[in-house]
Amino acid sequence: MGVDVKDEDRKAIAANLALVSQQIALLEQQYHRIAGSVRLLAVSKTKPVEALEAAYHVGQRAFGENYVQEAVDKYHALSHLTDIEWHFIGPIQSNKSRLIAQTMAWVHSVDREKIARRLSEQRPDNLPPLNVCIQVNISGEESKAGVSLSELDDMVALVNHLPNIQLRGLMAIPAPQVDHDAQCRVYEPLQQAFIELSKSDRMIDTLSIGMSADLPAAIASGSTMVRVGTAIFGARDYSAKA
Ligand SMILES: *Cc1c(COP(=O)(O)O)cnc(C)c1O
């Protein structure tokens, strides 16, 4: 934050957003998806609020953040932009769940019972239910976060039973694969689980998969929300964060 965002940076963000949106529209056509069925979540982690404002001013409303304190700081800094939709997509420590419950509209990274319970208990009464996706681990040992597909039914039952969170779908962060076909193969069981889940509940409408590096495979595999950072805001400089 506090980093200088120049006029040329704003223009680059606007141009990148237009390009990514166009790419999504083309991929929808290519993979026989309904036009407009894939939403774009702009992942703005590590980027200054001015970068988010630049995206907002060309129509972007949904923003994804990974780090709790950074997400909350941006939420307050941009509170005048009342129609921003804040999505939390990062790992959740239980002592940070309250801040998330108080500020975010969505959480994509619900990966254990304790977090689901806390988010529901801590959701303020004056806010609508928190929209959540269950994070699924589809890469086995290579990734630690997420429930396995065999644990998914139990997690769905738990989330459905909690009053102040609303299950909207599934999210995954697969390990990097060598090519498009391998990416699709990894997504295949998740897509099947999502189709089954959405048959049972009309509120289930979100399959949160796809990042800058695997948009085609994710859209081919039924993504309804892609989470794109680098292709919109440029590479992240983690050294500047500390
Ligand atoms: C950082 C991040 C993204 C965006 O990744 P890019 O490669 O920059 O598009 C998407 N999802 C999650 C969970 C992330 O942490």
Automatic annotation (TrEMBL):
<keyword id="KW-0663">Pyridoxal phosphate</keyword>
<feature type="domain" description="Alanine racemase N-terminal">
    <location>
        <begin position="33"/>
        <end position="236"/>
    </location>
</feature>
<protein>
    <recommendedName>
        <fullName>Pyridoxal phosphate homeostasis protein</fullName>
    </recommendedName>
</protein>
<dbReference type="Pfam" id="PF01168">
    <property type="entry name" value="Ala_racemase_N"/>
</dbReference>
<dbReference type="InterPro" id="IPR029066">
    <property type="entry name" value="PLP-binding_barrel"/>
</dbReference>
<dbReference type="InterPro" id="IPR011078">
    <property type="entry name" value="PyrdxlP_homeostasis"/>
</dbReference>
<feature type="modified residue" description="N6-(pyridoxal phosphate)lysine">
    <location>
        <position position="45"/>
    </location>
</feature>
<dbReference type="InterPro" id="IPR001608">
    <property type="entry name" value="Ala_racemase_N"/>
</dbReference>
<comment type="similarity">
    <text>Belongs to the pyridoxal phosphate-binding protein YggS/PROSC family.</text>
</comment>
<comment type="function">
    <text>Pyridoxal 5'-phosphate (PLP)-binding protein, which is involved in PLP homeostasis.</text>
</comment>
